[in-house]
């Protein structure tokens, strides 16, 4: 069974940093785009960032541009989300999700707006809590 496991969440003060990790098991990230999503209490899940299977294309929500950086390490089958300059409104459960790249079909990271409905991931992780609080 394909599996995604997130880690790295925690409690941080405003302006602080965290790095989230998403480790893929039993499938090769060379063939999958990976997206990071988040869901705050009482709000819909939203896309935060995305990286293509090749790693050549990335996308960010306007709310995190310039503060968050997505990257991948194929050797470790892991995608990272470096989050700097964290704000109170970044508090949420963060999920990573994978979508298999299909030839001649638009990739997940090209979809806008960045939502689960438009990006349609195939697999989800269980989530990791990020809390920004003073």
Walkthrough of the structure:
This protein has 134 residues and is mainly β. The chain is 3% helix and 46% strand. The termini are far apart.
Primary descriptors:
134 residues, mainly beta, 4-stranded antiparallel beta sheet, 3% helix
- Detail the poorly predicted runs: none
- Could you tell me the strand content as a percent range? over 45%
Largest sheet: 7 strands, mixed
What structural class do helix, strand and pairing data support? mainly beta
What level of helicity do the residues show?
A: under 10%
- What sort of overall outline do the alpha carbons produce when their principal axes are compared? globular
- Secondary-structure element pattern, one letter each: EEEEEEEEEHEE
**Can you give the mean pLDDT?**
95
State the total count of DSSP E strands: 11
Terminal Cα span: 40 Å
Describe the secondary structure blueprint for this structure.
Elements: E1 3-7, E2 10-12, E3 18-25, E4 32-39, E5 46-51, E6 58-60, E7 68-73, E8 78-83, E9 92-100, H1 116-119, E10 123-124, E11 128-132
Parallel strand pairs: 2-11
Antiparallel strand pairs: 1-3, 3-8, 4-5, 4-9, 5-6, 7-8, 9-10, 9-11
Q: Nutshell version of this structure?
A:
By secondary structure, this protein is mainly beta. It contains one helix and eleven strands, in the order βββββββββαββ.
């Amino acid at each position: 069974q394909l599996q995604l496991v997130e880690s790295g969440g925690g409690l941080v003060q405003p302006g602080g940093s965290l790095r989230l990790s998403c480790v893929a098991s039993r499938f090769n990230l060379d063939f999958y785009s990976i997206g990071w999503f988040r869901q705050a209490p009482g709000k819909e899940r939203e896309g935060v960032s995305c990286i293509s299977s090749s790693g050549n294309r990335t996308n960010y929500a306007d709310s995190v541009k310039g503060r968050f950086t997505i990257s991948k390490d194929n050797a470790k089958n892991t995608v990272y989300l470096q989050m700097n300059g964290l704000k109170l409104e970044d508090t949420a459960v963060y999920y990573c999700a994978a979508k298999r790249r299909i030839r001649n079909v638009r990739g997940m990271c090209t979809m806008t707006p960045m939502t689960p409905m438009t990006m349609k991931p195939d697999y989800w992780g269980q989530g990791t809590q990020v809390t920004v609080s003073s």
